[in-house]
Amino acid sequence: MKFFTLLVFVTGFLSGYSQTVSSPEEIGKRVISELISRPEFMMYRTETVRGVHYAEACAGFGAARLAGLLNEKELLRQLEDRYLRVFEDKIENTSNHVDVNVYGILPLELYLQVKNGIFLKQGLEFADDEWKDPLPDGLTRLTRFWIDDIWMIGALQVQAYRVTGNKIYLERAALEIDAYIKKLQQSNGLFYHGLEYPFFWGRGNGWVAAGLAELLSVLPEDNPHYGVIRQGYEKMMDTLLKYQDADGMWHQLIDHPESYKETSSTAMFGYAITLGYKKGLLPAELFRPASEKAWAGLISYIEPDGKLRDVCVGTGQTNDINFYLTRPRSTGDLHGQAPLLWFAYSMLLE
């Protein structure tokens, strides 16, 4: 009897401990603190494109939004201090590519949280710059039909709408994403990495899923592009359910179960699904279990310091399937830290 009592006590203790360390709130705060502790920014530097890296921007955006939801004023203060350095140190941004323009989502989120006008001006400049000298069909001149852009362009314009209430930003995002869906979505609901690259890369599709959910969470149903975007999103979500593993994870190539289980895409899909059913875009009875399973699956990949393992490194486009299958995996890569923060945020939404 004493052994049984002890076993019940230990089991209960461990169960409570597991629930504590696996909660979105506790993990989210740990990931935010880890981001703040990094002394340097992740940078994007090529011969022609330079700026704070989009993965840093997406992580900072997620951190600020989650800290705001949790009313963590000290974390917000530290995030404000961290990213004021971009302005104070006059860090270059060439504003000539979606991967550096998307930085604007971060100052716009910080403006929503801390009301510092520096961030508002900085963020709107990036959003408006995308539609200087648009193409004849109204699309941004930065259009390139890589699936990543559904998030890069869409999220920035949605953020600009959130801070201004000006529907021109929603129209820009909807016009752009409508065009991307028609170009890149395949009959099974998933998206090719690019026009000539017929692979369903996990994180690439993760950018799509998150971008579609982000836009649909605010896009009015009477918008002329709403039907195409909603249909594309629902079709994708239905297909993702079919490819989710029993442990909640998705794979580096979604339709190749022999490829490794990849965490950044799993976090992105989890975010897109959770935001979807909480905003009434998806049936909760069908999609909530998938969301909870994805979160439970990711828990085992999180290090004690909040770093996420098995994150695919940055990946360009290619016609060689082995390139995708053999991409290296890293720990603590901001490509994974960012969507982990988004997913935690969505899990905590009412």
Describe this entry's structure for a reader.
The protein has 350 residues and is mostly helical. It has a single domain (25-348), classed as Alpha/alpha barrel (Glycosyltransferase), CATH 1.50.10.10. The protein is built from 15 helices and six strands. The strands form three sheets. It has a two-stranded antiparallel ribbon with strand order 1-2. Strands 3-4 form a two-stranded antiparallel ribbon. The chain has a two-stranded antiparallel sheet with strand order 5-6. Strand 1 (43-45) and strand 2 form a beta hairpin. The radius of gyration is 20 Å and the shape is globular. The protein starts with a helix and ends with a helix. The model is unreliable at 1-20 (pLDDT under 50).
Q: In short, what is this structure?
A:
This protein has about 350 residues and is mostly helical. Helices cover about 60% and strands about 5% of the residues.
Helix and strand arrangement:
Blueprint (H helix, E strand, L loop, with lengths): L1 H20 L2 H14 L5 E3 L4 E3 L1 H16 L3 H16 L9 H4 L3 H10 L2 H13 L19 H16 L3 H17 L17 H15 L9 H18 L6 E2 L9 E2 H16 L5 H16 L11 E2 L8 H5 L3 E2 L3 H15 L2
Antiparallel strand pairs: 1-2, 3-4, 5-6
